[in-house]
Structures are given as structure tokens and as C-alpha cells.
Amino acid sequence: MSENKKAVIYCFSGTGNTEKAAKEYKKIFEENSIETLLYNVGDNFDNMPNPENYDYVGLAYPIHGFNAPYPIFDLIKLFPKLDNKKIFIIKTSGEPLTINNISSEPLMARLKPKGYILTNEYHYIMPYNIIFRHTDEFAAKMWKTAKALCVIEANEVLQGKECFLKKFPFGRFIAFLFRIEHPAMKVNGNLFRVKKICTHCNLCVKKCPVNNIYNDENGNIKFKNKCVMCTSCAFRCPVDAINIGILNFWRVNGVYKFENPPTGIKGKHDNYCKKAYDRYFADADKKIHNYVRSAEEEYKQKSYYKNIENYIL
């Protein structure tokens, strides 16, 4: 690979799960001599890099209601028309259901007429930040698996080895129906409230990816009308002071401990999508061990190969 090639990954991430995966791609690309820009997608695109200037172009996002979050849709509206521009997609979600694969379809329906071609798409399972909380032990297993897969799949992108996820019947139609979430979550965002226990640390203000949270003239936390329902504010709040409107019964608070998690703690939802999780981890394990057997020695010397070694240990 030529040393002067460049990559850009347009990444939207609320609580950081997708960003973690995108950063792994960046690290792997750069160790393969690909200059890589990780562009954080928010509510302002003034400094958006032009995909025309990059050899590798990626989109990274968490799946929201079988779709990409609305800032990703806003982003691709600004993409210029190009001839046969290859693009790869990294997406994350809390459950390994085939129906989640459809999130790429409405994006490519908009990008294909502009001349973009999807060559690779990958779905990494990361812990929930809404609905319920996984155990730290299970979250750590998800991340260890995702990191190992990132090694293999980032190299697939660089090597031109195409990969597509299994299609789901009537995918685009289902995604269209569930895209009601985009305006609905903006409405629900107006219902967010802050409890009196708030310490005014302003972490929620600083971490909101779409700048939806601000301090009023009295220093109180207030919310605008462009919530994307990433739940970064409620998830990160150190005193669990944020009520997330009509979905408050799904609120999850507190960051996960991915490294050296406590073990042996029984989760409340151990049977939730159990077959799907078992299948995901079994398929990942097979792919990782096949890679170990077939990987060329030069790749085993790369620092990122430690992700594979840590998985196997």
C-alpha cells in the first residue's frame, strides 16, 4: 500500500461505543501507513472534510431504530457527487439481530445516486446505553471481541476484500417506518428534566454530540429540540440526575468498566436474545481463529495484533 494514501472516518457516537471501534480502525489504518482522519459528526458541518480527497471513506454510527442517527443523514446530504467512490460502514448496537443490518440500506439509497459504492459493512456488538444495563463482565467480552474483529476487518477494507451483512426482508421499508424515531426523539428531548440532585458539573453539556444541552441565565441545565436520543447525558451523569422523558423507564446510568471488570455478577437479562448473542460470539470466535491460522507473519508483528492475542488468552 502506498504511504501517501489517506482515509477519513465520519463518526457519530453518543456514549462512545462507536467511537471506540472507529479509533481502532484509525490505529490499524495508520500502522499500515494510511494517514487517517477521524471526523466527529455533530450538528455543525462547517469543517467537514471532502470525501473526494480520501482513498478510503468510512461511516461509523450506532444503530437507532434500525437506522443511522439523523446527524449521519444530514452529513451525507452534503457529500458531493463522485464517480464510483468506495465507502465502508461501521455500526454498533446492543444486540446481534439480523434486522439491525438494514440500517445501511437507506443511507446507500441516498449515496448510490451520487456515485458511492458500498464495499464493506460491519456490525459490532457493544453494551446498551438504553433499555437495560449489561454486566461489566459481558460488556468487556463484547469489547474484547470487537477489538479483535476490528483488526481483521479493518485490514479487509485496506486489502479490498469486500464484506456485506446478511440482508433482511423488506429492509428499506422497515427502516422507513422506524425513521419516525428521528422527529419523535426531538420531541421527547423537550421532555428531559434534571433533578435537584444535579451538581452542575456540566458534563452533559460538554458531551452532548449535537449541542442540545445548555445553561440558562441562572445556570440551570436546559434542553433544546434537536435531541438524537443517544442518552449520553443520562448515561454519563455522575449522580444520575437526568430524566429522559417518556423513555425514562429505559434509562441506563454509569459508564461500563471494560478493563478488569468484576466477575460472577448475574445479570438481570441473561436470557435476552441469548441465541443471537451465542451465535454472534461463536461466529466471531471462528473468524478470529481462522485469521490466526492464516495471517501472514508481517501482520503478526503489528502492534494492533495484540488485540488478537488478548482475545485468545
UniProtKB/TrEMBL annotation:
The keyword Membrane does not apply. Residues 189-218, 219-247 form the 4Fe-4S ferredoxin-type domain. Transmembrane segments: none annotated. One of its GO terms (molecular function) is metal ion binding. It holds the Pfam family Fer4_10. Keywords: Iron, Iron-sulfur, Metal-binding. The keyword Transcription does not apply. SUPFAM superfamilies: 4Fe-4S ferredoxins (SSF54862), Flavoproteins (SSF52218). InterPro entries: 4Fe4S_Fe-S-bd, 4Fe4S_Fe_S_CS, EFR1-like, Flavoprotein-like_sf. This is 4Fe-4S ferredoxin-type domain-containing protein. It comes from Brachyspira suanatina.
